[in-house]
Every structure is written in C-alpha cells, then in structure tokens.
Design goal:
Isopropylmalate Dehydrogenase, 11 helices, alpha/beta, two-stranded antiparallel sheet, single chain, NAD, IsoPropMal-DH-like_dom, oxidoreductase, binds glycylglycylglycine, EC 1.1.1.83, 22% strand
C-alpha cells in the first residue's frame, strides 16, 4: 500500500484546530479508498516555538522537511512576534527553499456560499488564480540604510527573473489549455516601468506558443474593480506574488469569505515537497475557542489529493463542502452558524463516507 508521508505544521492561533479537521478528512478519504494511506508527522513550529527558542522552526527545519511527500500548514502569526518574522522565517522560507513557485488559489462560488455581489450569477465566479510564489515583490531583496537618521532610506526590490517569470506564465498557459479556458494576465506596466513591462513582454512571448488559449491583460487596479463588477471575465488568472496575494483576498470576499479560501504551493517538478494551506491567517481573536472555520483547510486537503493524482477524491471533498453549505446546518459562526470546528469536520467526513 502506498503511504504518503505528510509533515504537519499546525502553527499558530486557529491553525492547530483547523488542521485537525483537514487531517480527519484526509484519513476518511484514505479509509474509503483502502489503497493508500497517510502518515502524519507533527512539527511544533510557529510563534510559540519562537518565543521559546528564538526561531520559527528548527535550524535544520528545511532539511527535515525535505524527505516528506507534502507539507500541510495551518496558520502563522501571533501577537508578540513581528509579522515579518513569523511569515519570512517559516512560510516564505519554505516556499523559496522548496522552489514552490506556483501558488494555486481557486476563487469559486459554491452553491450555498454567501456572495455579497448583486446581479451576479453563481457560475460567473469561477476563477483559478495562479500566483508567482517565490520572487517578485516578495523577493526579500532590499536594504534599510541610515536607520533612525534624518536621511533614512528603505528599499524593497521586486525581482523578476526571466526564468521565474517565464515558468509561472507557461504553467498558467498549460493550465488554461488543459482546462479549455481563457488566461488573463494581471500586471501594472504603466507605473512599474521595468518589472511589469518585462512581465507583459514575457506574457506576450509565451502566448505565441499557445494560439489556442484566449488571452486578456489588465492593470491590477482595473482588475480589482472588475472582479467585483464583472467577475465572469476571469477564468484562469496569472499574476505576480504581491498582486496575487491581494487579489485572492478580493476573490475570497466574493466567493464565500476567507474561511473558504484554499491555497496550494506547488513545486511542479516534484523535486521538493509541495505545501498546502488555507489562505487565512491565525485569527488570534478566536483562537482556542474551537470555532475557527476549517473549510479552507479542508479544501486545501482536496488540492493535496489532486496533487497526488487523486482528482476524483479532490472533487469529492469540494462537493462535500458544497453540500454542507447548501444544507446550511453545520456552519461555524463566521458563516452565521453555531457549529464548532470539529462538528464541521465531522459532517464533511460523514458526507464523504456516504
Ligand atoms: N495559512 C497560512 C497563513 O497564516 N498565511 C498568512 C499570510 O499572511 N500569508 C501570506 C501569503 O500567502 O503570502
């Protein structure tokens, strides 16, 4: 029997609560199939670990994670630890070390999910965001000069290598081609006169290899507006690291809320483990109360199943989330329900098992 070894970094705040439910669902799927299994190894890394050790993860953490088939991450960040430390020294360093250059975030309005937009058909919100995930505005390149002095200068550089830009755009074209959908590129070439002019140029060059894929390009500000006023324009979308991070929160707002927003950090070559995580953060205000919404984490488990080649089970998990939303009975308070985190996980496992 094939056993997938999964490194679990439950992390901070509601992370451990929601990750338990994702694991419950993965175990249920494996039990149903009978032909494969998961073995979960827990790592106690995150902000509490930082307060005890001065590090967000073990010194040889990347080395330890390397041998796993995938990483399942809950949430990072907690008051008391600066956000740029918790993000950089755990989440971002894993993405970079394992060359997880593709961040896949579905923005799909499932039946039963709340959409604040008027006059929008449910099927009109069905986008797949493909965000560049290792460079761009999150390259970490920059400097802080003359700290605290009158002539203090801070530089934060966006890094767009030809290899990095071309490979994410090509991945997006391949995805659009496979799905028979259009591809929209989102940039900002009028203001970012080096990086985004280059991005647009590479998009144009790569598009020549995919004449069958219908394309569009928007400036990021216009795209943010159009996602709300006319979301059906967008099918597969490719964009840079920062723009993708921001626009997928817009996506979450129109597709049922941040509690439903899932993400996969993929190393397409399979040289390193890929990582699956909800888009949301650690929600310290509700941590420890057992009411965090586990649906995004469960949806990201479905992305893990897709990644391992079990697309039918991945779809089964998303279908179960949709059924739960339509039933409108077992939902956490952020979705106007009164159920606990574990009751939602139990119900999803039940639906999958029936
Ligand atoms: N679920 C992981 C988490 O806590 N993410 C918070 C976050 O700020 N992520 C930024 C990013 O995805 O780049």
């Amino acid at each position: 029997m094939k056993t997938y070894n999964i490194a679990v970094i439950a992390g901070d705040g509601i992370g451990p609560e929601v990750i338990d439910e994702g694991i419950k669902v993965l175990k249920k799927v494996a039990e149903l199939d009978g032909g494969f299994a998961f073995d979960f190894t827990y790592f106690p890394w995150g902000c509490e670990y930082y307060t005890q050790t001065g590090r967000m993860m073990a010194e040889d953490g990347i080395e330890q994670l390397k041998k796993f088939d995938a990483i399942y991450l809950g949430a990072v960040g907690f008051p008391g630890v600066p956000d740029h430390i918790s993000l950089w020294d755990l989440l971002l360093i894993i993405r970079k070390s394992f060359d997880q250059y593709v961040n896949i975030r579905p923005v799909t309005l499932l039946d039963g999910a709340h959409c604040p937009l008027q006059n929008v058909e449910r099927k009109d919100i069905d986008m797949l965001f493909i965000r560049e995930n290792t460079e761009g505005e999150y390259s970490g390149a920059g400097d802080w000069l003359f700290k605290g002095q009158e002539h203090e200068v801070v530089l934060q550089n966006g890094v767009f290598s030809r290899k990095g830009t071309e490979r994410i755009i090509r991945y997006a074209f391949e995805t659009a081609k496979k799905q028979g959908r259009s591809l929209t590129s989102i940039s900002k070439a009028n203001a970012l006169n080096y990086s985004m002019v280059f991005w647009d140029q590479v998009f144009e060059e790569v598009s020549a290899d995919y004449p069958e894929v219908k394309t569009a390009s928007y400036l990021v500000d216009a795209a943010a507006m159009l996602m709300i006023t006319d979301p059906k324009r967008f099918e597969v979308v490719v964009t840079s690291n920062l723009f993708g991070d921001i626009l997928t929160d817009v996506g979450a707002a129109i597709a049922g809320g941040i509690g439903l927003a899932a993400g996969a950090n993929i190393n397409p070559e399979g040289t390193f483990p890929s990582m699956f995580e909800p888009v949301h953060g650690s929600a310290p205000d509700i941590a420890g109360r057992g009411i965090g919404n586990p649906l995004a984490t469960i949806w990201s488990a479905s992305q893990m199943l897709d990644h391992f080649g079990y697309e039918a089970y991945g779809k089964k998990v998303v279908d179960a989330i949709e059924q739960l939303l339509v039933e409108d009975e077992v939902l956490t308070p952020d979705m106007k329900g009164s159920a606990s985190t574990s009751e939602v996980g139990d119900r999803i496992a039940d639906i999958i098992g029936n």
